[in-house]
Amino acid sequence: MTKRIVILGGGTGGTLTANRLHRHFKHHRVDSEEVEIVVVDQDNQHLYQPGLLFVPFGLAHDQDIVRPRKKQLQHGIEFEQTGIDHVDIHSDTVYLENGRELPYDVLVIATGARLATEETEGLTGPGWNEKVFTFYDLPGATALEEKLAAFEGGKLVLNVVDMPIKCPVAPLEFCFLADWFFTERGIRDKVEITYATPLDGAFTKPVASAALSDLLVEKGVNLVTEFNTGEVDGEGGKLIGYDGREVEFDLAVVIPLHSGQEYVGRSDGLGDDLNFVPTDQRTLQTKAKENIFAIGDATNVPASKAGSVTHFEGDVLVENIIKFLDHKPLDEGYDGHANCFIETGFGKALLIDFNYDTEPLPGHFPAKVGMPLLKESRLNHMGKLMFQWFYWHALLQGRDIPGIGATMPQHGKEHPTPTPEGASA
């Protein structure tokens, strides 16, 4: 007899979870039974998603950021390449599109988010991949590279349709890199760059939002806030908000609405209205059933949909799957820890580090001596570039990183001084 852990999704979360669990269960049994791990994904192309940002600017290419999924999994982990029809949470069975039925003892949802382009009127209509692009998938990023190389001036608009999205800082990074790109080409004065966001500022957290807004001003990027895109008119070259406001463009780069995967909607009791999976934000156990866990972009936890979040969640998730199989109480150890390098162009980057309770603050990471926080530096830029090597060789392999764990470090951060009671702020 064996216990079976089925992991749906062979991206960042699914891969690192499978590898960590495999490393543990090579040496441990559960109730005297061996543990089998099966990873399911519809294709065998593992995409390094942070690399998509660099493709439109000719700084990365598909061969740099795509590798076979199966090769990222340790020997002994089964990889099933097929789509998912649905999950029956009552019978603990996954039904696959190739007809196979996979009973499980533990299920992990790691299928990420999808771009719901169909939810925005006109987005993929006339002008799509001609005047309207996205860089949030590889075909879009590649098509945009060709367009940017030929762009000789006009109004460039970066638009986020709605939140949540994968890597919330990537749209800002695109604006900063566009400023650099057109400066290098000698036509920056001919390009008007606008960032149109549904948020009331450049970012969700006040301190970081203020710092990033200042950077947008410094780089000559217009900021349009509380803009909720209702329609994209590709032929007419304008974004139309639900409130009637219009933003004109010659070239629009749009980040579509995100949702969970469609099979979640076909699985009774598994997901919410957007097909994200309701998940305990500290244990990563889902609300659907106690033997179902979720990680990364597939969840509804109030943390950024970013690779670092998936990494930090993975530490807690794997420990809790082991505890669950050992009939032990789960650890409420995930505190929402996230950190992101924010590429700002001209060989520099910012770094932010935060969690559920602490917003991005200035200081250093991971301690008082380390990378500067909320401050442009070449060190942060090098960290951003080095992360790709780290991703393939350490993060995906599920290796522990000394000094960096799931819990956000407090040392090195410059916390604001509390205002005395009764005093004016």
Radius of gyration (Å): 22 Å
CATH superfamily membership of the largest domain, which one?
FAD/NAD(P)-binding domain
Q: Given the structure, what is the number of helices?
A: 8
**Might you state the CATH topology name of the largest domain?**
FAD/NAD(P)-binding domain
Structural class from helices and strands? Answer: alpha/beta
CATH class of the largest domain: Alpha Beta
Q: What is the annotated CATH architecture of the largest domain? A: 3-Layer(bba) Sandwich
Strand content: 15-25%
How much helix is in the residues? 10-25%
Shape: globular
The major sheet is characterized as:
5 strands, parallel
Domain unit count: 2
Please provide the count of β strands: 24
- N- and C-termini, Cα separation: 65 Å
Tell me, rounded to a whole number, the average pLDDT: 94
Low-confidence stretches: none
The spatial strand order of the largest sheet comes to: 5-2-1-9-20
